[in-house]
Description:
Layout: E1 7-12, E2 17-22, H1 32-51, E3 59-62, E4 65-72, E5 75-81, H2 87-105, H3 112-116, H4 125-141, H5 143-147, H6 155-171, H7 176-180, H8 183-186, H9 190-212, H10 221-228, E6 233-237, E7 242-247, H11 262-272, E8 277-283, E9 292-298
Helix pairs in contact: 2-4, 6-9, 9-11
Amino acid sequence: MDNLAKTVYILHLDGTPVLRVDFDHNATDNSDDFFGLFSGFSSAINTFVKELGHKEIKSISVGDGVLVYSSREPLLFVVHSTNERYEQLAKLIVKQIEYEFMESYSEVLNSDNAFVLHDFFKPFEATVIHIHDTLKSLHLHHPDLLEFLPSFIPLSALYEVLNMGLDVIEGYPNDTIKIVRQLDKYFTQENDYEIASVALGRYSGHMIARKRFKNEPVIDHDKVLKLLNEISVVKFDSSQEVFDFHLCPICRGKHAGHHICHFFSGFIEGALDNPGIDVEEITCRASGDSSCSFKLHRI
């Protein structure tokens, strides 16, 4: 398959070029002069977007694909993909690069010297290539996985979600809860746990629904309800568009000051596979509610 990215750019928000990684070595726009012009242009556009009241620029369609942006003070990260079908993958790449770069260089980002020293950030090129090649391989072998991930999930968590997702899909419904309840052993931080739980739910819910109802192009609420009742006791309130779990196996015996059944939020989203629907857990037994319930939001 083609590379997911043509070029990756990292630049200072003031327009100073930081690092460029080219995956298309035959490109004609890989000169230092072009990088300088591109950095200035991207910085100016990002500033203009913010002045209009938006948080940041997300993407720009260009003649040969799409530019996907992500900013985190004091830097701007850009992935140029020549295939618009890879825009979602480019968003994953740019967030991975942002995360790894900030982890690697957070201590020097406030130093002006780092941005004037030639090739100071050159060693990070190997990390960019690793991220790109890893996501490319995952997309090649498990194309559905990356389509149902949030905008960012660490690579280590990505592999864990993949492996657990394959086990959930293969063992559904008998082994589902046993596998899902192990998530907190791998992801001890609440934010990581939530991201991984939702990603696991989206992926497995999508794959299980398509496998079970393979001859039916639209998966509706009734079909999702059938799947959920194989592992719990669930009702659907059509007037409120809420799935209510009388007995939630994920938080059984657990206590928390917040909702923790993120897997089912993701599972319902993935099974419905409707980009216009977002699922939110609105009550949770672990936090003292009488049941766990999940509301569909039209977006």
